[in-house]
């Protein structure tokens, strides 16, 4: 159990009734605290068979990822990926299709479901912003140190399917 107090009334959360660490219940107001993964979104932009990657600052500083972020509450998932990608890279994108969906367990404090979208650049020039300090296109052979194991899986899939080389 990762949370101890009820977000509604401040009462103590307990798994005594539910016996499920993912569904603690408030001992005061009976609110059930469902612990679900957050949704992460990333966009795959490829130019000349090279993949656009971002060098992170903050969490996982100095390591690289496919530009990504979280879907916010009340935000459409397609709007989220376009917003995050623009904030981090300065590029406006059009989403082509969902490339793959994977569960991320690398951070035990925050499991996520990651959605990687295939995208095309509509406008703008590459300029790192928000959580990124650098953006650059990389070929498969020159891929830098990656922050997330699932990005590695996605990159392998892109290589196998001939999108990057
Ligand atoms: Zn409560």
UniProtKB/TrEMBL annotation:
Domain spans labelled Nudix hydrolase: 34-160
Highest taxon of source: Bacteria
Keyword Hydrolase tagged: yes
Coiled coil feature spans: none
Gene Ontology molecular function: hydrolase activity
Key words, A-Z: Hydrolase
PANTHER family tied to this protein: NUDIX HYDROLASE 23, NUDIX HYDROLASE 23, CHLOROPLASTIC
Protein name: ADP-ribose pyrophosphatase
Species of origin: Geosporobacter ferrireducens
Record lineage: Bacteria, Bacillati, Bacillota, Clostridia, Peptostreptococcales
């Amino acid at each position: 159990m990762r949370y101890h107090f009820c977000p509604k009334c401040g009462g103590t959360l307990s798994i005594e009734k539910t016996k499920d660490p993912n569904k603690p219940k408030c001992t005061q107001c009976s609110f059930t605290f469902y612990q679900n993964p957050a949704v992460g979104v990333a966009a795959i932009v490829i130019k000349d068979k090279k993949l656009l990657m971002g060098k992170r600052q903050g969490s996982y500083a100095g390591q690289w990822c496919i530009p990504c972020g979280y879907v916010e509450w009340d935000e459409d998932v397609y709007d989220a990926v376009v917003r995050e990608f623009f904030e981090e890279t300065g590029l406006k994108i059009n989403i082509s299709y969902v490339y793959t969906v994977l569960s991320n367990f690398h951070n035990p404090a925050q499991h996520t479901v990651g959605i990687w979208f295939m995208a095309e650049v509509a406008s703008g020039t590459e300029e790192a912003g928000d959580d990124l300090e650098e953006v650059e296109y990389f070929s498969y052979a020159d891929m830098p140190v990656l922050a997330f194991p699932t990005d590695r899986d996605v990159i392998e899939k892109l290589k196998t399917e001939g999108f990057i080389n």
